[in-house]
Design brief:
Helix content: 25-40%
CATH class: Alpha Beta
Structural class: alpha/beta
Radius of gyration: 17 Å
Pfam families: AIG1
Protein name: GTPase IMAP family member GIMD1
Order of helices and strands: EHEEEHEHEHHHEH
GO molecular function: GTP binding
Number of helices: 7
Keywords: GTP-binding, Nucleotide-binding
Family: Belongs to the TRAFAC class TrmE-Era-EngA-EngB-Septin-like GTPase superfamily. AIG1/Toc34/Toc159-like paraseptin GTPase family. IAN subfamily.
Oligomer: single chain
Length: 219
Amino acid sequence: MADSNEMTINLVVLGKTQTGKSAAGNSLLGSADFESRLCPSSVTTCCSLGRSGRILGLMRRNGRESALRVRVLDTPSYPHSALSKEQVRATVRAALAQHFGEEGLHLALLVLRADLPLCPDESDDTVQLIQELLGPTWKDFTAILLTHADKAEEAGYSEETYLHSASSTLLSLLSSVQDKYIFLDNHNSIIKEERNIVLRKLLNFIQRNNYQVLKHRKE
């Protein structure tokens, strides 16, 4: 926050293969920085950082309009088709220290598919990785992105009815992160208005956490 009239938020996307993790990162940036395609194996094998331009019209500070910049760290999925858990963890931890070591991380976004049920084993694996990466306060710095929301909507679910029918595993996870969740239609989110709605929600989560950041030191 060197410029008092500009704010940068630092985000990392985490999740399983083919959840739409890289596509979600592109939606947040309003760009196509990250490779995203249908593939029988894990597409992302290393971490990469994407940066948005200045985004206006989302926030005001001290009575003046402030610009927002978004930085998103895309990561290899876990479980991964070619990398072990230890390799994924070491790769992500090193990238967090490299890119966000000074300014800190505002939010980790756990990407899940809204059109697939969340099973306990899947949840346990992913949450354990996040705990190892973020430490004991991980719940304060984690939000859930439910991608492919358009498919849930096509099946007749609103956000309210979807959550009413969701598995106890998903509901427990949402509760543990203080109900910080966003439904994301990866196609619509490229549209400026839809993207801004998502970014406003993320800013609200960050504000609720008093703009705190997590800092990762190089090992």
